[in-house]
Structure formats: structure tokens, C-alpha cells
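the two lines:
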Amino acid sequence: MAIVEVKALARSFRSRGSDVVALAGVDLEVDEGEVFGLLGPNGAGKTTLIRILSTLLLPTSGYATIAGYDVAKEPEKIRPIINMASGAERAGYEFISARGNLWFFSQLYGISGEDFKRRVAALSDKLELGQYIDKKVYTLSTGYRQRMTIARAFINDPKVVFMDEPTIALDVMTARRIREFLAEEAHSSKRTIFLATHNMAETEAICDRVAIIDKGKILVCDTPANLKRAYGMPAYVLEVSPPPNAPRIFTSVPGVKGVTTTLDQERSLARVKLVVEDQEVVEKVLKALTDANIRLLSSWRQEPTLEEVFVNLVGRGFAERELEDAS
Amino acid sequence: MYSRAWVRVRSTYGEPAWLAVNLAVPLLSSSAMGLLYRSTGLGNYAGFAILGGIMLAFWGNVLWSMASQFNWDKEEGIFEIYLVSPAPISAILVGMSLGGILATAPSAAFVGLIGWRFFAVAMHPSWLAVSMTFFLTLASLYAMGMLLSSLYLAYGREAESLNNAISEPINFLSGIYFPSIGIGSPFPFALQIVASFIPLTIGMDALRKSIFYAGGVNEIWLNLLILAVMASILLVLGDRALKSLEERGRREGTLVVRLR
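prediction for all of em together
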């Protein structure tokens, strides 16, 4: 059963005298107990959609409901049953302990002392906050601050939790623990987790379904496996030196569907990921490299990931898309 | 409400350095004013300086600090947690204000005690009048703080500039260390009228009368009435401004600050 419904949702902002479209008619349905991923590059509209759904922002047109309540007209009915956390927010008040902060935030929901004790014990256990729960926030590492932030987002036993890049800038172990926690919460407690991220691995690891968003539009929405099956194309990674000046050398070859480039300045090489129609295209690319006096150092084939799905749909990787937006 | 007050008190007294600053700064500024009065042969006015130091601490905490804390919460991303919760913003502001009062009380008591002992201030308090004035003044200050906080909802840093720009003129006009209205005021009548629109001016005038000149409720009833009217009007205005600017913030996208 759908707990989040979004129909033709649009939002634009006035900036320097012109309208900037952040969302251009989004349609979505998210079920109860589902981990739903909203995947897209920075500036794609993920945060705007989360802000509208969490009642912080009004849409310009269209509508969205949470548990049947209109986000624009009935925020007071939605707020008790949702919560949100972002990887960019401060964990809380620095000079107060993690437990003290959690108690304060629980009071925003009128949670009784007994319920608070029970919930904080369970969350602390699941997020492995134990020995840090009574330490002041300013003494905690980034990872433990983020665990506290995640615990805060579940303190009111919400039906829907909005997460905006919850594992950004975290170490591998903490990020993994948080992902496991989110998946457990969704599947064991019938809680809906709405996860906005540009982390492909995170999306593939825990999301039941994924919507890929770009320039305020949902391009596709399905399970990660179905998306890869339908839109994933083989990818080849080439390490070349010297790094080519422009991606045109690759994109001008017929059959190249998309390209993402990572520079390794220390080793003076570029790692180029090519999404291609078939293996014959790679031969043509190698010839183009030889003609341009660029040496191939190594190459390997990669199974399709969600990044290839995005590249196939948009023709650019996330990094290239963000650069394109910036220019 | 109480939980936000608790956050404020814990944050203030959580660090020994802050505690020392909280106690020392109002004492030093009041003592400087008191010594100035004494050196110019107006030793009996030293009480005004001590009272000013006490009230300045409350004034700063309830009004300016409430609005700036509100903005701090907004800039740190904590404000959006409030907004997404079912807790009314006005209750959070009352909590901030109450926390400010509780956090200020020990420092105010310290200033009062030291000032009274050191300057041997002669007091003839009418406690009922003092308490009524004190609470009505704080209610007006809270309401003004709510109005200022609502500006932060819509304007963010621009509101902070306004806050900074008006704080010193208001401190000056309200006569924290000297009578700015009535007998002994150095201001021309027109300026006294302007100063009378600030609740703190009316409150300070009533406190001076009721603490140092044994003015009972009968003597300061007009001050109490004006403070009650100001508090009521400002509370209604503050509440409406908060609601309408929250709605405007949701429409225009100014409720939250993007941190990255």
C-alpha cells in the first residue's frame, strides 16, 4: 500500500530575476516498509523533493500526500508520523550529551520518560552508540555524531523517515552500519525509508526500488536489478596516459553511450569508464587513442551498475552532469 | 517548552568558562557605572546602575539571545528538525526564553548581592509592585523576541543586521543605567515619548520607583497597565507574524539554510 504519493509535483525558485526549475512534474508512489532510493547528481532536485514531502517547502503545482494527508494543506497531521535526517546537519547541541540531545528531541514529540528510555536503549544498541551515549556531542567523532543523528530521526517511531545523503563523508564501517540499520528498520518495523543520495553503492545495497532523477524529472523507477537489466550496458574501464584534454575523443566514436573520467594526477593518467553498445566499439576507441598518441595502460570489463543505467539514460556520469550544471 | 529551557540552561552552565563570563560581565559593567555615579557625587544613583546590570542580563537573554539563538538553530540545521516535528514554534521560543531567564537568574542575583554590599545601595522595595513589573516586563520582552525571531524566519541574516542595528539605540533609549523618562531624565520630552514605546523603558521606570522609592502598585499602576497592554499586543502580533512568516518561508523556500 502506498504511503507516499506524488502527482505532477513541480517547484521552481526565483533566482537573479529568472525562474529556476527544481522539480518539473514528478510522479511517484512509495510503499509502506519500503526502502526507496532517489538517486541523482547534485542539483537534480532530490533535496527539494524531500523538503516538500517533509512539509518544509510548498510545491509550485501538483500535490503530494503522506499517509493520505496533503503535505501542503495538512502539515500538522503529517509531522507526528514523519522524521528526517541529513548528512549535512549538526548532530545537536554540542555541550549536551548524546542522550540529553535525544531526550530533548523526543520532547518535541511529547514522548513519555518510559518510552524514551526504551527507545533510546534499543536505538543505542542497534547503532552501537553504547559507550558514547552519555558523552557530550562535541567530543564525538563524525561517525558517532551521525549515528546520533540517525537515532534522533527514529526517536518518535515514525512511519516515514526522509534521509538526505545520510552517509556522506562517513568511514566505510559507519556507513555500512547505518545502511544495515536502515534496511532492518524498514523491513522489520514496516517503516518507509525515503533515501535521497548520489551514492550508487548505497542505493544498490539497501534500496528495494530506485527512482533516478535528473534536472527535476524522474527518468526511471524500478528495482535496482530491473533497472540494470533494462538499461545497464557493458562498461569498460581504460587507464590511459597522458589524460585526454576533452571527452570528445571518446564521445565522437559511434556506439559510445556515455563516458565518465577520473583524473589521477599523481600518476598522470585518466581512468575512463565507457558505456558502449558492444565490444566492437571498444576497438574503435582504442584506435582513436592510438591516433591521438594516448597510451593505453590497462583495461577491464565491468558489470553494469546503476551508474551505467544513469549514463545510458543521460549520456553523462554524475560528475560530468554536475560540471555541466556548474558551467 | 521545558526541554528547550533545559537545553539553554545546560548549555550555559555546561562549561565553567561560560559560567564565569556569565557572572563577571554584567557585574563589571554595572560596577563601572556605579563607580562613575559615585565619583561624580551621585552615589545614591549607584542603585540604578546595579538594577540596570541585572535587567540588562535579562533583557539580553530574553530578547536578543532568543532571536539570535533562533537564527543559530536555523543556520545549524536544527531549526528544520523543529519544523518537521509537531511542536509549535511558539512553545520552543517560550522554552528558549524561560531557559534564558533561568540561566540569567544566578548572574542577576550575584550582581545584585555584590552591588548591594559594595555600593551600600539604600532600597525601600515594594515587593508586590516589583514582582508584577518584573514579570510584565519579561512578558513584553518575550513577545518582542518572538517578533524579532519571526523576522529570522523570512529574512535570515538580513534580520541579524537589523537586530544588531537596533540593539544599542534601544539599550540607550530605554535608560538601563539612568532614568530616561520622567523626573531626572536627560532627554527632551519628544525623545521621552519615543523611549516610552519600548517596554523596557516603562519596566525600568516602574522598577526604580518600586525598589528605591517604595512605590506600591497604586503609584505605578499606569506603568503596569502600559506594560500589560504592550505585552498583549506584542504577543498577538508576534504569534501572527510567526505563523504568517512560517507560511511565507514554506512558500519561498527561506525556512532552511542549505549547509552544503
